[in-house]
Amino acid sequence: MAEQLPEHPDFLWRTPEPKKSYDVVIVGGGGHGLATAHYLAKNHGITNVAVVEKGWLAGGNMARNTTLIRSNYLWDESAAIYEHSLTLWEGLEEDLGYPILFSQRGVLNLAHTEQDVRDSVRRVEANKLNGIDAEWLGPDEVAKICPIVNVSADIRYPVHGATYQARAGIAKHDYVAWGFARRADEAGIDLIQDCEVTGFTTDGSPDDGTARVTGVRTTKGDIACGRVALCAAGHSSVLLDMLGVPAPLQSHPLQALVSELLEPVHPTIVMSNAVHVYVSQAHKGELVMGAGVDSYNGYGQRGAFHIIERQMAAAVELFPVFARAHLLRSWGGIVDVTPDASPIVGHTPYENVYLNCGWGTGGFKATPGIGWCLADTVANGRPHPYVAPFALDRFVTGALVDEHGAAAVAH
Amino acid sequence: MQLIHCPWCGPREEVEFHYGGQAGVAYPADPAVLSDEEWARYVFVRDNPKGRFEERWSHSAGCRRWFTAVRDTVTYRFER
Amino acid sequence: MSRVDGYGRIDRSRTLTFTFDGEQYAGHPGDTLASALLANGVRRVGTSVKLDRPRGITAAWSEDPTGLVQVEEPFPEPMLLATTVDLVDGLVARGLGGRGRLAEVPDTARYDRRYTHCETLVIGAGPAGLLAARTAARRGDRVVLVDDRPAAGGSLLGTERICGRSAFDFVADTVAELRADPDVRILPRTTAFGHYDDGFVLALERRTDHLAQPPRDVSRQRVWRIRAGHVVVATGAHERPIVVEDNDRPGIMLAASARDLLHRYGVLVGREIVVFTTDDAAYDAAADLERAGARVTVVDPRPGAGGSATHHARVVGTSATGSEDGAVTAVTLDDGTVLPCDALLLSGGWNPTAHLFSHVRGALRYDAELGAFRPGEPLDGGTVVGAANGTFDLAGCLAEGRGETPEPVARRTHVLWRTEGEPARQFVDLQRDSTVADIARAVASGMRSVEHVKRYTTIGTAHDQGKTSGVIASGITAELLGVPVESLGTTTFRPPYTPVAFAALAGRQRGRLYDPERTTALHAWHVEAGAVFEDVGQWKRARYYPRPGEDMEAAVLRECAAARTGVGILDGSTLGKIDVQGPDAGVLLDRIYTNMMSSLKPGRVRYGVMCGVDGMVIDDGTVLRIDDERFLVYTTTGGAAPILDHLEEWLQTEWPELRVSLTSVTEQWATFPVVGPRSRDVIGAFAPHVDVSNAAFPFMSWLDTEVDGVPVRLARISFSGELAWEVSVDGWHAAAVWRRLLDLGAPHGITPYGTETMHVLRAEKGYPIIGQDTDGTVTPQDLGTEWAVSKKKPDFVGRRSFARPANLDPLRKQLVGLLPVDPDLKLPEGSQIVELTDALPPPPVPMLGHVTSSYRSAALGRTFALALVKGGHARIGERLTVPVDGALVPVEVTGSVLFDPEGTRRDGEPSVR
């Protein structure tokens, strides 16, 4: 007998029809939308809220991601929000009353070149000063934490060391979403599935700063609203096009895959940029891997197979014992990518519309953090300090938060 | 993996190509006269439609020529 | 023993020995592990993942949800289906309780991949597929026919008749005809596992596991990458069980699978068999099994179905009383009848195996008559034929294989997902131990989508990916919700169709072949000289050349000293080189570089910086003007390919009117900087006919000459601040020229140096390395290279971005030098920098920047560093703190040029000028 998955609650959520009007409509019933709903209710007492979802709850990237949670980002701005999120993760099981299988098993980011080493040390030192647990480990220490990593010097790109964040972890993605959904539902928030937004009714003009959204048009009818939060991830551009708001977003396929269930072999999470690997072993025993982003724009939730093959080659190179593990299933999500690989959060030209998008490959780990901050932003009508640096206007001023460069760690 | 038609070389495997995003975004005639907002629009903002998309590709592992193609971002199918 | 004479295609003349769960058994060539186990009376194969219930073989091939084994020998492989493991002598395996085990030693087997192209790819060599292949071959197509079983025939088991002949004769004739056609490739034991756009199909060929002694030169598995003009999916159908209480016991199996085991392997799954069916096909199985010696009772709730012996009832439960292995001993019917048995066969109809159609977005539609999802609108470039298309009669399959529309045949499938019983013991996904009760809980909790139900119950997520359970789960969910099945749909099929080993997908891209290694023309020399290499992109570059007893620091100090006091030589051949030609070459470069290039005179060299459109530095290097219409652009090693792409993109997509062509000549030129105050002596001796005086050969100029008939380019370029020449020569003559330079330099103590010394020398002079001292957020102004930013040019790529508010922020990070107060302390590269302090405040501690480069300098007699520091240019002279391993290291900010800031050395030491 190999596993003990927790039992789910007997009741999760209602299936309500939309009311005529809500104080807040959240567009997108993924992790971010559901977390925002939860914190609107919990932290701000705002419960006349609808979450409208075009498909099934948490059926987009939330259902398709590889569940890495970490906060060891380079820049102060990123570190602040991701660390806030990680702190929330650490109390989330209790907050949600849901067994989300949050497991802090640490993440190793491998370095394979001299420049990788410099970048890694830079990030570790920045993390420490930002109060984030981080260590730089040599190859021997890497092997102690994860004995199956090939740290031999005669592979094509030998491991020179790794950064290690011990508090990083994984969680069961569906359970996280359902935990938030259940809490939101309990608070009286309407979670409305199969309800696609087809347009917005607006008032005023963006030119004189009086523009506002008065309602949301959906496949289940028009819904009037006081404020709108857009949490549509890969489909954000579709919504923004309806509002005529240009944003620097490109939607790309991102693939992931799992193996069959295996006896425990991999105690931590390993990521490598140079040899593109990203792998953990989930609770049931399957190896979970993230592959690279497909180069072209795509909303198809599927990618090209050469990306998977490259990922397999990298995996076997770094983990020779994976040779006869089997690829069981691959799938694709739609990641909305920004020019600086940081999210876009905050005001839009519509006074009562708040944007949350551009999380790229990093959205899952941010779920509680952004839910908290976006709820605060929506409730108070001004950006929460942790999201303020991620405003849309940074592309105009040039004050980007460029997580490509030294911190170029996908996911 | 798609088969992409290079106008010069014919159908070739997707791995031979480099993607270039939206087509038809011209470099401004005089960037100096643009406002910061207009310049940011040129530098960073590209269309991201769900559906038909006119986009740039380069046959980077072949003839290295750039070309414009129309593709559906949902089905990934190229218009021929 | 359940082997029966006269059946099966196994070779009974030979016996194989194998071990399962520690017991030794015998089988025959042609057996699978499953058939051999059943032949030996082993019905319990493993235990279930959550509930620890005994599990056996439930289906005969890759759709089996239960018969999971771990192979231990010949090589450990986790979680295989006993039904698909070929029996070989010495096989050791054990049953699984849910998790496989990876080998602790590396897999030494080889894997590879092959590409093939064809007009028609046929997936599946059953009746429909064989005819489709034959039709295409006769049309003249190049045909590839893949089939996942060892021999063609698919569902044909020998009892059928085609055109009045035995089906096997038909199969043999068709295969023979195809084999004789040179344009047909038949790939048995090959599973098409993924179908992608434009007729791209991946198929895994299992080449050696069935062989007693695999040839060493044959890869174990091969991934075929097939690009087909037309893809015919002829993958058959999976039989569907009916969910009854305690339906998970060993001995409970799909009806057609029992028939398959009989005809392929001569295994009779029971002597006392109950068949519970709502579909006619199971009667074929019943008849065959009876003929082979079993007593068969058919239970069929459909009124009027079957013969007089048929019980018109429903099976509602099973028992295993007195059974040691937990296998079924009796079934209970809804009329109270108890039928003793040693096997229960289930047949609730068939699900077309439409996975490969679905992979390419083929839409499935629910067919209420079949109780199954079948392919809907056909896709361009592909067809689905036979049972995969929901055409279950043989004549219809043959017709569709020929490309004809078959006569419709009425089906009498009665859709029955489950019978009455205790939901908690009605297993839907046997591998996941998921039951009807689990679905009921999911629905009661508020779930309305099959995707939610799947995630809540985990149905369909196991090794078999729900091949037999998926549709039933949809059906039962629909019943519980009171909605039609078609409104729920089914979950999405994703590649791979069956599991594929990571190593097979990795193929040959392992070890040294994981990524190409690029080496310079001198690589052999470097190796012989004992160089330590570093990876720079795909290049192997010599980092330093330690002498006996030297570590890197000692070697680099020695190499640096040689270059500053005598002469050193570097293999700089990895630098990117782009030949830019055409009447508008200067115009293009003016638009790309931040400084002016068109004003460069032929014979001269200029340093330049390139930015992206966002104004951030992307590359730098020198440019040689060859003649009026030709420049040679040097890029960084890493920039070679991206910068060529960058230039091509601007040239082709923005300025196609410019008459310029670009060619990479990185590989064509080997380049050796000869560096140091004695370099003039070496170059003078190397090219005695060239006047190497400062006056005749000034800094930043170049010329072409010949040395012993070898064309050589000499350029006075310095990346060290020292008097230096770059000697460039074609790759063929590189080694000879290098050796010549070493010989001529020997009297001056010429010292080969590597990239580490190159980095120290340039850092002493404050020359940045793009990618080390920059990170994509650094402007030319930040680097202190405004002097290379033209004020005259109206525009160049990135210029407009310099005027953005963030670019004008005085607190931008700027490149400066850092001198640790302790001259012996070398700061780790990457260290962060904070305000001067003797105690860090609690986090978050404001950071001012980081150390980008840090070295011990022979010339300075101390350590030093380069760093990006907020407002750094204004902080020169200030002290700051660098936390290092818990200590707070005071450092002084300096200008970035620490050695010879006046630039007195580039023309040579005054004494030797």
Instruction: From the alpha carbons, calculate the radius of gyration of chain C and give it in angstroms.
Output: 38 Å
How does CATH name the architecture of the largest domain in chain C?
3-Layer(bba) Sandwich
Strand content of chain A: 25-35%
Overall helicity of chain A: 25-40%
Biggest interface and residues each? A-C, 88 and 94 residues
Number of domains of chain C: 5
How can the largest sheet of chain C be summarized? 7 strands, mixed
Separation of termini of chain C? 99 Å
N- to C-terminal distance of chain A: 33 Å
Helix content estimate of chain C: 10-25%
Description:
The complex is a heterotrimer of chains A (411), B (80) and C (913). Chain A is of the alpha/beta class. Chain A has 9 helices and 18 strands. In chain A, helix 1 runs parallel beside helix 5 and helix 1 (31-44) packs across helix 8 (367-380). The two termini of chain A are 33 Å apart. Mean pLDDT of chain A is 94; it is low at 406-411. Chain B has a single domain (3-79), classed as Folate-binding fold (2-Layer Sandwich), CATH 3.30.2270.10. Chain B contains 1 helix and 5 strands. Chain B has a 3-stranded antiparallel beta sheet, with no helix packed on it. In chain B, strands 1-2 form a two-stranded antiparallel sheet. Chain C is α+β, with helices and mostly antiparallel strands and 913 residues long. In chain C, helix 4 crosses helix 5 (281-291) and helix 8 (436-444) packs across helix 9 (450-457).
Q: How are the secondary structure elements laid out?
A:
The complex is a heterotrimer of chains A (411), B (80) and C (913).
Chain A: E1 21-27, H1 31-44, E2 49-52, E3 68-69, H2 76-96, E4 107-111, H3 114-129, E5 135-137, H4 139-145, E6 161-165, E7 169-170, H5 173-186, E8 190-192, E9 197-203, E10 212-218, E11 221-230, H6 236-243, E12 250-261, E13 269-272, E14 277-281, E15 286-293, H7 305-318, E16 326-337, E17 344-347, E18 353-357, H8 367-380, H9 394-397
Parallel strand pairs in A: 1-2, 1-11, 2-8, 4-13, 11-18
Antiparallel strand pairs in A: 3-7, 4-6, 5-6, 9-10, 10-11, 12-15, 12-16, 13-14, 14-15, 17-18
Helix pairs in contact in A: 1-5, 1-8, 2-8
Chain B: E1 3-6, E2 10-13, E3 18-22, H1 36-44, E4 52-58, E5 66-72
Chain C: E1 16-20, E2 23-27, H1 33-39, E3 46-47, E4 54-55, E5 68-73, E6 77-81, E7 92-95, E8 111-123, H2 127-139, E9 143-146, E10 161-162, E11 165-166, H3 167-180, E12 184-187, E13 190-196, E14 200-206, E15 221-233, E16 237-239, E17 252-254, H4 255-265, E18 272-277, H5 281-291, E19 295-299, E20 315-319, E21 330-333, E22 338-340, E23 343-347, E24 350-352, H6 355-359, E25 364-367, E26 372-375, E27 382-384, H7 394-401, E28 427-429, E29 434-435, H8 436-444, H9 450-457, H10 470-481, H11 485-488, E30 500-501, H12 502-506, H13 523-528, E31 532-536, E32 539-544, H14 552-565, E33 568-570, E34 576-581, H15 585-592, E35 605-611, E36 617-627, E37 630-635, H16 640-654, E38 661-664, E39 669-675, H17 679-686, E40 702-707, E41 710-715, E42 724-730, H18 731-745, E43 751-753, H19 755-764, E44 813-820, E45 832-835, E46 849-857, E47 862-870, E48 879-884, E49 887-894
Parallel strand pairs in C: 1-7, 8-9, 8-15, 9-12, 15-27, 17-23, 18-19, 18-23, 33-43
Antiparallel strand pairs in C: 1-2, 3-4, 5-6, 5-7, 10-11, 13-14, 14-15, 16-24, 20-21, 21-22, 25-26, 28-29, 31-32, 33-39, 34-37, 34-38, 35-36, 36-37, 39-42, 40-41, 41-42, 44-47, 44-49, 45-46, 45-48, 46-47, 48-49
